């Protein structure tokens, strides 16, 4: 039967990761996959996570199964971190998931169970795996315009124009912060306008929050999500711990669903059911570390301090790259790099220019010219700036 299988197109981001590893050139620069790297190109285990792991090694006495939906302590810690200490516990259901991808997948599954007629509205562009998962699920989706590729800003009027066609019960997927792949984000006023529109339409916002703490700060990056959660009766939030806790391979994520209080019990039960049908229990190790870090004041303070170092380091690289390009291009047309937030910016280079930078300079970025700022350091920024100009961007 297996000879009937058709070859699947490889995931572009993960394929690029393999291509980079195979490149023998020592000067190569990886601006591809969304993984944080320090100035030496390492992805460190965060200090607080390491300390929690040591404590856990001493204190953990069993590895028997945990709860199907994950530990209540993990739910509470994540809800507090994402929604604030005054989150509405009586309306919130939570699910430990296999990373942020798992949270997205289970969120889509839940939406489909609740409303098989729903269309999922997705920003154009978005993280390619959103589209890939939706296509795999044979789930109807539509794109809404999001990015002004000339100005490299949010095309807000176009976005609102497209979202005006949303129907009651549709799901609108939004990036909570640090939009992937563009780096262009909604202002709080724009979040409020989106909330008004979705409320008027009776649509359900779904927020993918994968980079909380990488943009304007831990609290600031949750502000849009909190605004939506305070305004809309039903909200889906897919939060990832991969990036802000640096625990990529532990596969730790949390799906949070706000419903009316009367629907909470069935919603929570449906979430647990979705885990059981997919893989039974989500991995526990990363979720336990996150819970420890978020609930121990000393660990939390150290984690927040390190996360802030990561964030400000990326901002510094953005400033440096924009300044180099200002000088080399004798213009301010690359200043958007300093205004974007998070790990990514979409440069606006053609696929040919992206390819030229890979061939000539061993600089790897995703084909749509998304670059991972964290892949740079003070020494490679000038190399990238020169390569961008040489490629005619
Ligand atoms: C990315 O966009 O590079 C990250 O979210 C990693 C991934 O899984 O694609």
Automatic annotation (TrEMBL):
InterPro entries: Aminotransferase_I/II_large, Asp_trans, PyrdxlP-dep_Trfase, PyrdxlP-dep_Trfase_major, PyrdxlP-dep_Trfase_small. The keyword Lipid metabolism does not apply. Keywords: Aminotransferase, Pyridoxal phosphate, Transferase. The keyword Flavoprotein does not apply. Its cofactor is pyridoxal 5'-phosphate. Signal peptide: none annotated. Residues 27-388 form the Aminotransferase class I/classII large domain. Homodimer. Belongs to the class-I pyridoxal-phosphate-dependent aminotransferase family. This is Aromatic amino acid transaminase. It comes from Rhodobacter lacus.
């Amino acid at each position: 039967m297996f000879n009937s299988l058709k070859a699947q197109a490889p995931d572009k981001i993960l394929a690029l990761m393999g291509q980079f590893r195979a490149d023998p050139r020592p000067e190569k620069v990886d601006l591809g996959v969304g993984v944080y790297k320090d100035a030496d190109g390492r992805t460190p285990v965060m200090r607080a996570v390491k300390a929690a792991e040591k404590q856990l090694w001493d204190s953990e006495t069993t590895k028997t199964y945990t709860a199907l939906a994950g530990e209540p302590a993990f739910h509470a810690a994540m809800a507090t971190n994402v929604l604030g200490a005054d989150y509405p516990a009586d309306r919130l259901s939570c699910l430990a998931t296999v990373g942020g991808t798992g949270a997205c997948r289970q969120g889509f599954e839940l939406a489909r169970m609740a409303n098989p007629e729903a269309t999922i509205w997705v920003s154009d562009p978005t993280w390619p795996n959103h589209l890939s998962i939706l296509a795999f699920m044979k789930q109807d989706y539509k794109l809404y315009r999001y990015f002004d590729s000339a100005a490299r800003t949010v095309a807000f009027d176009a976005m609102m124009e497209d979202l005006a066609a949303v129907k009651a019960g549709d799901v609108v997927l939004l990036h909570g912060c640090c939009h992937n792949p563009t780096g262009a984000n909604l202002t709080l006023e724009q979040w409020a306008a989106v909330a008004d529109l979705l409320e008027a339409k009776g649509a359900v916002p779904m927020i993918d929050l994968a980079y909380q703490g990488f943009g304007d700060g831990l609290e600031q990056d949750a502000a849009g999500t909190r605004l939506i959660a305070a305004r809309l009766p039903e909200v889906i939030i897919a939060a990832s711990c991969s990036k802000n806790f640096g625990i990529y391979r532990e596969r730790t994520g949390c799906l949070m669903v706000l419903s009316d209080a009367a629907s909470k019990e069935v919603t929570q039960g449906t979430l647990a059911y979705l885990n059981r049908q997919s893989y039974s229990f989500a991995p526990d190790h990363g979720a336990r570390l996150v819970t420890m870090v978020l609930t121990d004041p000393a660990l939390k303070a150290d984690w927040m301090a390190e996360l802030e170092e990561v964030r400000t380091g990326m901002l510094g690289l953005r400033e440096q790259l924009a300044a180099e390009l200002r000088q080399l291009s004798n213009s301010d047309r690359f200043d958007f790099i300093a205004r974007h937030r998070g790990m990514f910016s979409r440069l606006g280079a053609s696929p040919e220019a992206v390819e030229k930078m890979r061939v000539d300079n061993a600089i790897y970025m995703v084909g749509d010219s998304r670059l991972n700022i964290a892949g740079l350091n003070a020494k490679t920024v000038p190399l990238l700036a020169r390569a961008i100009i040489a490629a005619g961007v």
